[in-house]
Amino acid sequence: MNIDFGKTAQDYRQHRVGFPEAFFARAAAVGLGLPSQRILDIGTGTGTLARGFALRGAQVNGVDPAAAMLEQARLLDQQVGVVVSYQTGRAEALPFADESCDAVSAGQCWHWFDRSKAAQEAYRVLRRGGLMAIAHFDWLPLPGNVVAATEALILQHNPRWQGAGGTGVHVTHFADLSDLSQAGFVGLESFAFDSPVVYSHEAWRGRIRASAGVAASLSPDAVAQFDHELAAILTREFSADPLHIPHRVFMVYARKY
Fold it and tell me: Going by C-beta distance under 8 Å and a sequence separation of 6 or more, which residues neighbour residue 161?
């Protein structure tokens, strides 16, 4: 698919819930997001990780190829009174000097990269002993739940979408960081925990519009038709409002040797 999150930047800012507070506490416990730490957040999008780390006193740079997403990130930063330095760029060719960062983070984006090149670039910009972290906060399609119904509808409208059926645990990321011929990170560890999110019907529709399978890849008319059908499903089959959507946090991390 031709994915352009810039086309859905406003819905992304308004409706896509960022990582929960519990994530940042767990990340800090393993050395990520500490005061004065120099962090580069790649594929930053609307800055959900970058902003969370900046709120905890880190010095954060964010990189993303979509200028529209970075503009939304700046608006969100203004609302909470933090400053993150954003610039357009790609994870495979980072505009930063060798060994200039204490940590590199990637939230909800690693699967969009050329992972080998992104790992090599992260390794290059990290100082010795620096931390590389790949994080996710994924909805969980369980039998009969609203997530499963929503995924089925996305596939009806966009059969090329490959995001359905996830478990929230991304085991391939261990290989992405541990292959010495690619990057050479050591001391790999991970953590995972579940954290449900409350969405109103309206917010869930906005959240889904902001996904890769909908507004980031479909035409405006197709998005409108999809949204109409999702609203009908919610009214007919999931009338409780708000909805309690199961999510799973997952992070794999390692250090530059």
Answer: 1, 154, 155, 212, 213, 217
Residue with tokens 């609302």: 79
Nearest to 186 by CA among 97, 257, 245: 257
At the fourth CATH level, the homologous superfamily of domain 5-256 is Vaccinia Virus protein VP39 (3.40.50.150)
pTM for the full predicted model: 0.92
- Placement of tokens 């906005």 in the chain: 206
DSSP state of 239: -
Q: What is d(CA 20, CA 145) in angstroms, rounded to the nearest whole number?
A: 22
* Strand runs labelled E in the chain: 38-42, 59-64, 85-88, 101-107, 126-139, 185-194, 197-199, 243-245, 247-256
Which value, to the nearest 10 degrees, does the dihedral of the CA atoms of residues 197, 203, 208, 214 take?
-160
**CA quadruple 195, 165, 118, 257: dihedral, nearest 10:** 60
pLDDT per residue as tens digits for the range 77-126: 999 999 999 999 999 999 999 999 999 999 999 999 999 999 999 999 99
